[in-house]
Amino acid sequence: MQFAGIGIEAVVGSRALGRAEETVASLRQRWPGRDLPLTPGENQAAAAADLVVVATPWDGVLATVAPLEETLRGKVVVSMANALTRLGREMVPLLPPTGSITVAVARALPGSRVVGAFHHMPAGPWSDLDHPMDADVMVCSDDRAAQDEVVALVDRLPGLRGVATGGLGSALAIEALTPALLEVNRRYKTHAAIRLTGLPGGDS
Length: 204
Ligand SMILES: NC(=O)c1ccc[n+]([C@@H]2O[C@H](COP(=O)([O-])OP(=O)(O)OC[C@H]3O[C@@H](n4cnc5c(N)ncnc54)[C@H](OP(=O)(O)O)[C@@H]3O)[C@@H](O)[C@H]2O)c1
Prior knowledge:
The chain is an alpha/beta fold. It has helices at about 1-5, 15-30, 45, 60-65, 70, 100-110, 125, 145-155, 170-190; strands spanning about 10-15, 40, 50-55, 75-80, 85, 90-95, 115, 135-140, 160-165. NADP nicotinamide-adenine-dinucleotide phosphate binds near residues 57, 58 and 63.
């Protein structure tokens, strides 16, 4: 969605073409003035793109990517899912056996260039093209070139800065931080995101 907002052609994937069509239609309706380059498709069609973002709930990620392994081979595959659950009123992290969902994706797709990113995007601003976000996006990968590619892509999105955070091992900390952010947002009724200080080039 944010990609389409800056003119990048994007396929909106779904397990059912009809639902992807509905999603694209509702996005076009929401922003009638923008010629969003969005195409609806089943997940197989979405996986044919040059770069693929897996954006299902955490417990659907492996079922989504495993059948697409061949199509995704050699491609940059971005995982943004966070394993979490509700404990009473509070959101808490779950620890997958692999430590993170991103690593689970990398194991399921040994031929792909797996990158973790976008885990901390606050839901409202992430789907709003009218107000630029204000956040850093932590980008982790064991594939340095793929990581750099995603950092550069993030840098093109209004208000966002990509920050390389290290290898896939850092996905555990990144994903586990998300429920804490959700709690911040619940407590303060806001859309807080992450900004890192002290980086070369300034703090934004
Ligand atoms: N929402 C955000 O702003 C945001 C920000 C940062 C990270 N994330 C992460 O991104 C992921 C997606 O978040 P979301 O809020 O977009 O989730 P969502 O709306 O609940 O799910 C996105 C899509 O995933 C598909 N899906 C649902 N359950 C599935 C399953 N069991 N197996 C395969 N596909 C399934 C559905 O599409 P079809 O039924 O059409 O296939 C659904 O429309 C999550 O893991 C979340 O932690 C979200």
